[in-house]
Amino acid sequence: MDCCTNGKSPHQLVEVVYKSTIRDDYTTRNTHKLHPENSNWKTVYLYFCALSSNLAQMTCGLMFAWISPMSIKLLSNNTQDNPLATPITTMQLSLLGASQPMGTFVGALMVANICDLYGSKRCLTVAYSIMAISMTVVAFSSSITVYYLGLFFCGTTMGAISVVLPIFVGEIAEDHNRSKISCMVCTGCPVGTVLCYLIGSYVSFRCFNSICAVPAALNALCFLFLVPQTPVYLVKTSNPAAARRVLGNVRNKTGKEIGEEIEKIQRDLRETYENHSKSGCTGILTDRCSRNGLVVALGCYILFATSGVSAFTAYLQPIFDAAGSSLSSSTLAVIAAVLQVISYASASASVEKWGTRNTMLYAVSSSCVPLALTGLYFYAKAIDPGTMKGYVWAPVGGLNLFMFLNVMGTATVPLAVMNEVLVDRVKATANAVIVVVSGIAMTLAVFSLPLLMERIGLAWCLWLYSMNCLIGGAFIYFVVPDTRGKSVSEIQEVLFNLFAR
């Protein structure tokens, strides 16, 4: 085209208007530069739907540490602190401590089939509501029996959330952000734990338990009025029109792109039902992909229990007391909890950059070094306490660095891995199995640490868990596949050939 027309200077720019002679639908599809096809658009509403679950996760974090500040009040003779008429006995304290874990196992086992029938959104709404009601009843009661039941039902909802929340995130997220969002939905848990350490000793029993109920109640209201049912469940229940409306809200996409995603969901569900015709435990046992997926996910969750994070977190204060730091053990425990919050938050960024497999591999493998060095400090101190007086910072720094690295790789990333490697047909049942088995492993780890410390010493306990981190790193390297950006069918193909390589 000649730009030097109508007497214009050859160096003078002129406005040229192009009129397309191509069909309008083609032009719209190929010239919509502000919104290209197959772009990884992020919407605020999608993240709100997923991350609002952090409210209930705050209640879970408060409940994980509930027994620590509340036991002091219930054992007190001061009626202003103790809502009961008399201090509780040691047996009653043990029953209070066991009520929540027992409920967790029950909730994980009973929710699998319910989630398949009614969908993850409804199950989470009911679970959040029961959690809020349970803690409200505990707050305004003066009966130890009510405390048992309240903590048991709260534990039941925590077990149900552990099973259903990964399903909800997996069904509402996209392939490119599924792992990142899976990590982000757990950030509220350590925040709740920090909150418990900060305020648990300074507020009344009624006030603290009321605070525990508030985040779960807000989460229930969010899911009831603001969060939609997942598009996968709507397609599964033959309601593609509703699924299209939901996708229009949680995806910043054109109508054509939404239609393509509906077709992709239908295709993935059809392939899942064709290749995994059986559901539940039968489907896991008879299907090769499901078995391999369960091995991968369960191994990652057991790694969290056996790497030492859960055990050391439970006994942070006595371990810091043994280190001989000038700071109080309670202050150091709060610092460690804050670092865990930062670690939880960093996990999603690491997963987005390196993927789930590499994040776990780097974090777990590197965490064995500060743990081994901390063990060396306590070994030298046991031989000659005077030689380590100038290095009291070493165990504090070493344990905090270990927990920062290890939590980044084992606390939230296994949730993302579980979301990736388990198909919809068996996910609820497999999640329940994983929660129960890993819960038992975690209970044994926490239970055995004081006995091991008494029998072989703290240094050897640290070295033992350091060796477990190395073994866990080897498991990740040889077994856990890289699922970054892969679709459901592509991940299933990788799992089918997992142990054939």
Automatic annotation (TrEMBL):
> Which compartment or compartments is the protein found in?
Cell membrane
Q: Which InterPro entries does the entry mention?
A: MFS_dom, MFS_sugar_transport-like, MFS_trans_sf, MFS_Trehalose_Transporter
Give the stretches traversing the membrane: 44-68, 88-111, 123-140, 146-169, 181-202, 208-227, 294-315, 327-347, 359-380, 392-417, 429-451, 457-480
The membrane topology term of the UniProt record is: Multi-pass membrane protein
Its GO CC terms?
plasma membrane
Q: Which segments constitute the Major facilitator superfamily (MFS) profile domain? A: 45-484
Q: SUPFAM superfamilies recorded for this chain?
A: MFS general substrate transporter
According to its UniProt record, what is one Pfam family this protein matches? Answer: Sugar_tr
Task: Return one GO MF term.
Answer: transmembrane transporter activity
Q: Which UniProt keywords apply?
A: Cell membrane, Membrane, Sugar transport, Transmembrane, Transmembrane helix, Transport
What is the name attached to this protein's record?
Answer: Major facilitator superfamily protein
Organism of origin:
Phyllotreta armoraciae
Identify the gene encoding this protein.
Answer: 24378
